[in-house]
Design brief:
Layout (H helix, E strand, L loop, with lengths): L1 H5 L4 H43 L1
Length: about 55
C-alpha cells in the first residue's frame, strides 16, 4: 500500500493534482446548483408577474 501511495516517487505531484481536480469538480457542482436555484427563482417571479397582469 505504501508503494501505491508513494506513486513511484511522484506523490508530491500526483496527490495535489487529484486534490485540485476534486476541488474544481466540487465547485463546479456547487456553482451549477446555485445557478439553477437562481434561475428557478427568476422563472417563478416571471410567472407570478405574468399571472398578476393577466
Amino acid at each position: 500500500m505504501k508503494e501505491f501511495l508513494d506513486m513511484g516517487g511522484y506523490a508530491a505531484f500526483v496527490w495535489p493534482s487529484y486534490a485540485i481536480t476534486l476541488a474544481v469538480i466540487a465547485l463546479n457542482v456547487y456553482w451549477a446548483r446555485r445557478r439553477l436555484t437562481q434561475a428557478r427563482a427568476a422563472a417563478r417571479r416571471r410567472i407570478a408577474m405574468h399571472e398578476e397582469g393577466a
